[in-house]
Specification:
The structure is a single chain. The protein contains nine helices and six strands; from the N terminus they run βββαβαβαβαααααα. It is α/β, with parallel strands linked by helices. Helix 1 packs across helix 6, helix 2 packs parallel to helix 3 and helix 5 runs antiparallel to helix 6.
Amino acid sequence: MHRISSTSGGWNQSEGLIFLEQTPAPFVLITAADTDIQTLAAAVTKLPGSFPALRVANLLQLQQQLSIDNYGEQVLEYAQVIILRLLGGRSYWGYGLEVVQEIVQRNGRTLIVMPGDDAFDPDLISQSTVPLGVVNQVWQYFSEGGVENFVNALQFISDSCLLTAYNPPPPQPIPRVGLYEWGVGSGEWGIAEQGSRGAGEQGSRGELELRSSTSELRSSTSELRSSTFEPDESTSELRSSTSELRSSTFEPDESTSELRSSTFELDESTSELRSSTFELDES
């Protein structure tokens, strides 16, 4: 696959005009997804040596009309099969689609137009020049994703458009989610097959140690919470002492009452003494 080489140019550099510099090839694929480009780069290495050359362009670098016209003249004019993966429908890249359709009609080439996601778009697919069944199967290859599906998609397009005989299998479903087993691996990941069991045991041991540490942390947290509530007992004792202090503060009132009582008795005695003195004076 020919890597994308881009250079800035044009009359107004502030507009960010980009010209894609590629050599012509029988297959041209235009997409806005970087994952498509990366997967195709891996898929090309698994294609047979006799497979036609392929060029891939990023749709995001073909936004200005001048860029599209230049790419059409330099690359698309010589392509035998043009594949478009568009997000957002035909209006997202309206001018580019018109240019491609003119080239295909003028040169009698093949055009495959499909959505860039898993949402079926009859209007977009109808812009293709091949039967609907062919476009639908190519779209399923790309929607499922994966290197093998991309390899089979290119071979299927070649069989349908260039009359080759690769006979690839139908699209293979790829699980959307998966389960990773700890410690299970192969030599490709740098883990020896003999040591996979040991790695699994180490992983289990590490998991148990992690759980043990988590339990200890929870226990320490509980002890911390318990110690946080202990000062309440000291507070209760302090409150009790304060109550006793308050009680002792009121005790002098009783002594004061006794003192007042004694004073009253003294006053009575003084009165009696005065009475006796008065009687003595009379005598």
